[in-house]
Design brief:
Elements lengths: L7 H11 L15 E5 L2 E4 L4 E4 L12 H13 L9 H11 L8 E5 L2 H16 L3 E5 L8 H4 L3 H4 L9 E4 L16 H18 L4 E7 L14 H11 L3 E5 L26 E4 L10 E5 L1 H8 L13 H16 L2 H22 L3 E7 L2 E9 L4 E2 L1 H15 L1 E2 L1 E3 L5 E4 L7 H20 L10
Parallel strand pairs: 3-14, 5-6, 5-7, 7-8, 8-9
Antiparallel strand pairs: 1-2, 2-3, 4-10, 9-10, 11-12, 12-13, 12-16, 15-16
Helix pairs in contact: 2-10, 3-10, 4-9, 7-8, 11-13, 12-13
Length: 449
C-alpha cells in the first residue's frame, strides 16, 4: 500500500478545506508533500530526497530505529494514566537530573514546550507570590494564552502588552543597543534589566520571574553575551523573583559543548526553573519542567493537586530514555561540535566573498546567517533571504527557513546526525545562489525596512 494515499493536489485541497488557515505550511506557495523520512533526510511522494536543516524536533534523526523500537515495545506492554506507579518516569527523571546542576532535582512531565512554560509561570508565581514577568524583546515562549501574553513576537500583533509584562532589550550584539565593540555587553545588557526592575518597583509592582530562551531563536539565533544571565539572575533574585531558562529549542546537546544552552553562561550560573520540550521526544509529544525543592514545595503548599494525564506516561518516558541513549552512544554532542564548527567556518569564509552576509553566529548545530543589504547600516535583506530559501528548496532540495525580527536570518537547526558532507553541500549551494544573484544584479530590496 502506498504511503501517500492521495495525490498532492488532493491533499492540499483537503487541507485548505479542513485545517485552520492560520496553520501555515512551509513553502506555502508550493508546499513539499513528505511521505517518509530517515536521519536528516525527507522524501516526497515522488521519491525526491530533501536535506532537512529545519527539524530540530527530530533531534537524533527522523524515524531513528532505536526510538521507534522503544516506543513500540512499551506501547505493546503498557501505557497508562501517570497516576499509577511505574518505573519509567522515575528512571527518566533520574537520567535528566544527572545532566543538570544538583539543585534542579524536581521534575514535572508535560506534553509540549507550551505546557512546560505555562507551568513554569505558575510555579514562579506560587513561589514568589508576585505577578509580574520580565521577558526579552522578540521572545516567543509558546501558543497558550498565558504565553502569548509573555511573547512580544506574538502579542505585538494581537491585543498588545499586559500591564504585568515588561520587555527588556534583546542582548543582540550585532543589531542591539550595545554591540560587539562594547567592552562588556553582558553587563550592559544586564543593567537594562536592573533599570527595568527599578521602573516596575516604582509602579508599586513586584517581579515573579525573568523568562528567557537560553539562546533566543525567533529573535534571530542570538548568542547571549558572556556573564549576562548570571548578572540578570542576581538582579531578579534580589527583587524576589526567579530566573526561568527556556531550553525548548536549545537543550539536549544541540550546542555540542554543553548539554544545556544556559551552561554556556558559565559553571556558576544555574537557573531556578528550566523548561524543555521539542527535541526530548524526537517528534513524540514530551516536555518537562525542572526546578528546585523549595519552589516545588511552595507549589505543593497551595494544596491544589497537579496532575497531567499523559505527561510522563510509560511510552513517553521510554522514548525519552531512548533519545538520551542515542545522544550518548552515537556521540551526537561531539558530532554537533565538529560539524557545527565546520559549517560555521565555511559560512564565515563565504562572508568574505559575499557582502550580503553581515554576520555568521551560533554554536554547535544552532547557527544563523544574517543577510544585509548594507554592512555598515546593517539593513536587513529580507527579500533576498526569502529568495535564497526558495531557491535552495527548488534547485537543491535543501530545506532551510528564516527567523529574526525582519526574517533576514537564515537559520540552521538540523537533526543532530547532520554530517560534514551535508554542511559542505549546503554552503556550496548558498555560494552558487548568492553568486548568481549578484551576477544578475537582482536588486530585490528597495527601501527594505
Amino acid at each position: 500500500m502506498a504511503l501517500d494515499r492521495l495525490k498532492k493536489e488532493e491533499t492540499l485541497a483537503m487541507r485548505m478545506r479542513l485545517i485552520g488557515q492560520s496553520c501555515k505550511l512551509f513553502y506555502s506557495d508550493d508546499p513539499v508533500k513528505i511521505v517518509r523520512a530517515r536521519g536528516q533526510y525527507l522524501f516526497d511522494e515522488n521519491g525526491e530526497r530533501y536535506l532537512d536543516c529545519i527539524s530540530n524536533v527530530h533531534h537524533v534523526g527522523h524515524c531513528h530505529p532505536s526510538i521507534t523500537k522503544a516506543a513500540a515495545a512499551q506501547m505493546d506492554l503498557l501505557n497508562t494514566n501517570t497516576r499509577f506507579l511505574h518505573d519509567n518516569i522515575v528512571l527518566y527523571a533520574d537520567r535528566l537530573a544527572a545532566t543538570l546542576p544538583e539543585k534542579l532535582c524536581v521534575f514535572y512531565f508535560v506534553n509540549s514546550g507550551s505546557e512546560a512554560n505555562d507551568l513554569a509561570l505558575r510555579l514562579a508565581r506560587q513561589y514568589t507570590q508576585h505577578e509580574d514577568v520580565i521577558v526579552l524583546d522578540h521572545a516567543y515562549h509558546g501558543h497558550l494564552m498565558s504565553l502569548i501574553d509573555i511573547s512580544p513576537y506574538k502579542f505585538r500583533k494581537l491585543a498588545g502588552q499586559k500591564e504585568w509584562v515588561h520587555v527588556a532589550p534583546l542582548p543582540d550584539i550585532y543589531r542591539g543597543i550595545y554591540r560587539e565593540n562594547h567592552p562588556n555587553p553582558g553587563q550592559a545588557y544586564a543593567d537594562t534589566v536592573k533599570d527595568l526592575i527599578e521602573e516596575v518597583h516604582g509602579k508599586g509592582r513586584k517581579i515573579s520571574a525573568f523568562f528567557a530562551e537560553s539562546l533566543p531563536s525567533v529573535g534571530g539565533q542570538i548568542i547571549l553575551p558572556r556573564g549576562y544571565s548570571a548578572k540578570v539572575a542576581e538582579y531578579v533574585r534580589s527583587a524576589g523573583g526567579v530566573f526561568v531558562a527556556d531550553e525548548v529549542q536549545t537543550g539536549f546537546g544541540r550546542l555540542g559543548s554543553h548539554f544545556w544552552g544556559f551552561q554556556q553562561q558559565g559553571e556558576n550560573f544555574c537557573p531556578d526553573i528550566v523548561t524543555m520540550g521539542k527535541p526530548m521526544g524526537n517528534g513524540h509529544p514530551l516536555a518537562c519542567v525542572a526546578t528546585t525543592v523549595e519552589i516545588a514545595e511552595a507549589f505543593t503548599a497551595n494544596r491544589v493537586e497537579y496532575f497531567n494525564t499523559f505527561g510522563g506516561n510509560p511510552v513517553s518516558c521510554a522514548i525519552g530514555l531512548a533519545v538520551l541513549d542515542v545522544i550518548e552512544t552515537e556521540d551526537l554532542r561531539g558530532n554537533a561540535t565538529r560539524v557545527g564548527e565546520h559549517l560555521k567556518d565555511l559560512l564565515t569564509k563565504l562572508q568574505t566573498k559575499h557582502q550580503i552576509i553581515g554576520e555568521v553566529r551560533g554554536a554547535g548545530l544552532f547557527l544563523g546567517i544574517e543577510l544585509v543589504t548594507d554592512r555598515e547600516k546593517r539593513t536587513p535583506a529580507t527579500q533576498t533571504a526569502a529568495l535564497l530559501v526558495k531557491r535552495l528548496k527548488e534547485e537543491d532540495r535543501i530545506c532551510v527557513s528564516t527567523d529574526g525580527p525582519w526574517e533576514s536570518v537564515l537559520k540552521f537547526k538540523p537533526p543532530m546526525c547532520f554530517s560534514m558532507e551535508d554542511a559542505e553541500r549546503v554552503v556550496q549551494c548558498i555560494d552558487r545562489i548568492l553568486t548568481d544573484i549578484e551576477a544578475n544584479d537582482l536588486k530585490l530590496e528597495k527601501e527594505d525596512i
